[in-house]
Amino acid sequence: MSLSVPRRPAVLAAAALAVGSLVAAAAPTALAAPSAVTAPSAVAAAPTPPDIPVANVKAHLQQFSTIAANNGGNRAHGRPGYKASVDYVKAQLDAAGFTTTLQTFTTSGATGYNLIADWPGGDPNSVLMAGAHLDGVTSGPGINDNGSGSAALLENALAVSRAGLQPTKHLRFGWWGAEELGLIGSKYYVNNLPAAERSKLSGYLNFDMIASLNAGYFVYDDDPAIEQTFKNYFSGIGVPTEIETEGDGRSDHASFKNVGIPVGGLFTGASRTKSAAQAQKWGGTAGQAFDRCYHSACDTLASVNDTALDRNSDAIAYALWNLGAGTPVPPGKSFENTADVNIPDSPAAAVNSPITVSGVAGNAPATTKVDVNIVHTYRGDLVVDLVAPDGTVYNLHNRSGGSADNLVQSYTVNASSEVADGIWKLQVKDTAAQDIGYINSWKITF
Ligand code: TRP
Ligand code: ZN
Ligand code: CA
């Protein structure tokens, strides 16, 4: 058995999580509500988020529109309208006290630019990042896609400056180049971020198309804490939301999610058609695309839904102010058993792999994390339980997953009624004949 060192530095613990599976990334590790690990008394109330003036957001859109008009009708990668857009956003941020960085890359034979803006202050080891792609397609000015996300994010950054916000987390904003060519800019940023820097990113919020004329209110189904934050905003203003399903991975959040960073975001719909039920709850026109000017010449100021732009701009502020105030990621104490344990074929008794936990004060948290790595030729055969030191059984997996191989999965267990110290077991029983395997490793994190 190998015990990971309980007191390893937080950065290393977070780095280990960052390179974990996507499943692990989806767990509310980074932005979870304070658990038993953090003293609730240390949690300061989040400051009240401002109402973002939609007129200011529209003024930025007006600028993007003018920039496109003066540069051949678009703001696409490699075209002068893109660089002019970058210059406009950068000048605003510089004047407001941000530390801006222009990152260049080359793709499709042209120089691309990412604009990064850091708001001075906050915990350098816990960074909340928000981003939007600033490029458009060549066929039009790209005002909804994605002037809307770019402008709302810019106005939010300016609001941070106006408020003199001093959040617990360090805030960083990003405007990406060449998203329309395949998330090129954001991939470049993530790939060039040293592992130690990546692991400091507690979350990434993405805003791509947030003012579609026939708007829906879609929230990305990714990090639970980020998702819940956006849902809280919308329920507070009485606007129902749905989960975003029009192509997961089709925007820059995918670049972050792919390396294990918790992500979330907002979206008002692209070429998909609004249903009757959606028109009922949100207004607009059933049977028509959310954005019938998607990637077209008519993606102009006239194709922007001001109400959606206003609500989503305010939702961004709500998320930045609340998630930015979050307590730093508690390091968590992990214990692992990497010894293989054979799982005999059914019929046979359950087998188990023990881990001795010591040095964890009090009870286990409500967000006790269990990482399971079982090698098996048919995971649908398996019943997998976590057994607490007092014998309480928490079922993790009950024969789901059909004929797929292996069970490599993270689980969050509410083990808050269990004393943490003692011997925990991963218990596995094979319930059907013919396929076999072994417990490769498992890990419990408090
Ligand atoms: N990113 C796409 C674009 O710029 C638009 C898009 C389609 C999208 N589906 C999405 C954005 C889902 C966010 C979420 O053309
Ligand atoms: Zn887009
Ligand atoms: Ca079997």
UniProtKB/TrEMBL annotation:
<protein>
    <submittedName>
        <fullName>Leupeptin-inactivating enzyme 1</fullName>
    </submittedName>
</protein>
<keyword id="KW-0106">Calcium</keyword>
<keyword id="KW-0479">Metal-binding</keyword>
<dbReference type="InterPro" id="IPR008979">
    <property type="entry name" value="Galactose-bd-like_sf"/>
</dbReference>
<keyword id="KW-0732">Signal</keyword>
<dbReference type="InterPro" id="IPR045175">
    <property type="entry name" value="M28_fam"/>
</dbReference>
<dbReference type="GO" id="GO:0004252">
    <property type="term" value="F:serine-type endopeptidase activity"/>
</dbReference>
<dbReference type="GO" id="GO:0008235">
    <property type="term" value="F:metalloexopeptidase activity"/>
</dbReference>
<keyword id="KW-0378">Hydrolase</keyword>
<dbReference type="InterPro" id="IPR006311">
    <property type="entry name" value="TAT_signal"/>
</dbReference>
<dbReference type="InterPro" id="IPR007484">
    <property type="entry name" value="Peptidase_M28"/>
</dbReference>
<keyword id="KW-0964">Secreted</keyword>
<feature type="domain" description="P/Homo B">
    <location>
        <begin position="329"/>
        <end position="446"/>
    </location>
</feature>
<keyword id="KW-1015">Disulfide bond</keyword>
<comment type="subunit">
    <text>Monomer.</text>
</comment>
<dbReference type="GO" id="GO:0006508">
    <property type="term" value="P:proteolysis"/>
</dbReference>
<feature type="signal peptide">
    <location>
        <begin position="1"/>
        <end position="32"/>
    </location>
</feature>
<dbReference type="Pfam" id="PF04389">
    <property type="entry name" value="Peptidase_M28"/>
</dbReference>
<dbReference type="GO" id="GO:0046872">
    <property type="term" value="F:metal ion binding"/>
</dbReference>
<dbReference type="GO" id="GO:0004177">
    <property type="term" value="F:aminopeptidase activity"/>
</dbReference>
<keyword id="KW-0862">Zinc</keyword>
<dbReference type="InterPro" id="IPR041756">
    <property type="entry name" value="M28_SGAP-like"/>
</dbReference>
<dbReference type="InterPro" id="IPR002884">
    <property type="entry name" value="P_dom"/>
</dbReference>
<comment type="similarity">
    <text>Belongs to the peptidase M28 family. M28A subfamily.</text>
</comment>
<dbReference type="Pfam" id="PF01483">
    <property type="entry name" value="P_proprotein"/>
</dbReference>
<keyword id="KW-0645">Protease</keyword>
<dbReference type="GO" id="GO:0005576">
    <property type="term" value="C:extracellular region"/>
</dbReference>
